[in-house]
Amino acid sequence: EIVLTQSPGTLSLSPGERATLSCKVSQAISTTYLAWFQQKPGHSPRLVIFGASKRATGIPDRFSGSGSGTDFTLTITGVEPEDFAVYFCHQYRTSPWTFGQGTKVEIK
Amino acid sequence: EVQLVQSGAEIKRPGESLKISCAASEYNFDNFWISWLRQLPGKGLEWMGMIYPSDGDGRYSPSFLGQFVLTVDKSIASAHLQFYSLKASDTAMYYCARHKGAGYCNSANCWGFDVPDVWGQGTMVTVSS
After folding, report:
1. Residue A45 and residue B45: Cβ atoms within 8 Å?
2. How close A77 comes to chain B (CA, Å)?
3. I need a labelling partner for A31 at 20 to 30 A (CA). Which of A3, A106, B9, B75 fits?
4. Nearest chain A Cα to B39, which residue?
5. Distance, CA of B45 to CA of B119 (rounded, Å)
6. Cis peptide before A96, with omega less than 30 degrees from 0?
């Protein structure tokens, strides 16, 4: 099973600051198979990034994904109030599909 | 708009059975794999298994084998997650999600699938005596 480890667990930021979220994968995967989801309390996960760097429909360009191999990053350039949420990375290279434990982006 | 709409919250006692549903609309239900995922209270996401509506081919995570069964009813474009004997530890939010594109499976695992891009709103299941 491919294990994903996210850091930090919590990121405390003021609106307008830059958020950098890390996802380390236990074995190298193609960028094709790494995604990021956003989840707000009481809501289902929302796809933000797929293929490591492709924004999903309706996702603003302040969200960007990068990385390769075992190290991937989600960056929010200028966090907006609606961006405060939990973010999960996800690999869909090989089943069982797995997720990181999440990074909470909270208001400082 | 492509949508997955799940059945409502359930409160059950240990040992009871439960079937929750995920109704698809505005796309060809037969041709897209549906995954089911669990989220324990305050925790992350766990993939339980997935099913291909066209032929009912089901794939299960080794972590969840034997705990539930996945089925579909093509006549109403719905996927179902059925528990036969619930435990308190099954208390969780359950999500269905559609995979954007299909991949390949052998007897052991699957690969080459596309990301789950459309999610249901979730079904909260509470199991308590």
Report:
1. yes
2. 23
3. A106
4. A44
5. 13
6. yes
Residue with tokens 């669990």: B38
- Give residue B27's identity as a one-letter amino acid code: Y
State the greatest distance between any 2 C-alpha atoms of chain A, in Å, as a whole number: 38
Determine the Cα–Cα distance for residues B108 and A36; give it in Å rounded to an integer. 26
Q: Mind listing the pLDDT tens digit for each residue in B8-45?
A: 999 999 999 999 999 999 999 999 999 999 999 989 99
Parallel/antiparallel/unpaired status of strands A85-91 and A103-107: antiparallel
Q: What does DSSP assign to residue B40?
A: -
d(CA B78, CA B34): 10
Alpha carbon A60 to its chain centroid, in Å, reads 14
Candidates A107, A93, A96, A91; CA nearest to A37 is A91
Question: What is the pairing mode between strands B18-25 and B92-99?
Answer: unpaired
Structure tokens of A76?
């929010």
**pLDDT, mean of residues A85-101:** 96
- How confident is the model at residue B100, as a pLDDT? 83
pLDDT in tens, A16-63: 999 999 999 999 999 999 999 999 999 999 999 999 999 999 999 999
What count of CB pairs under 8 Å joins A to B? 59
Residues A88, B44: C-beta atoms closer than 8 Å: yes
Query: pLDDT tens digit string along B84-94?
Result: 999 999 999 99
Q: Which residues of A touch B113 (CB under 8 A)?
A: 92, 95, 97
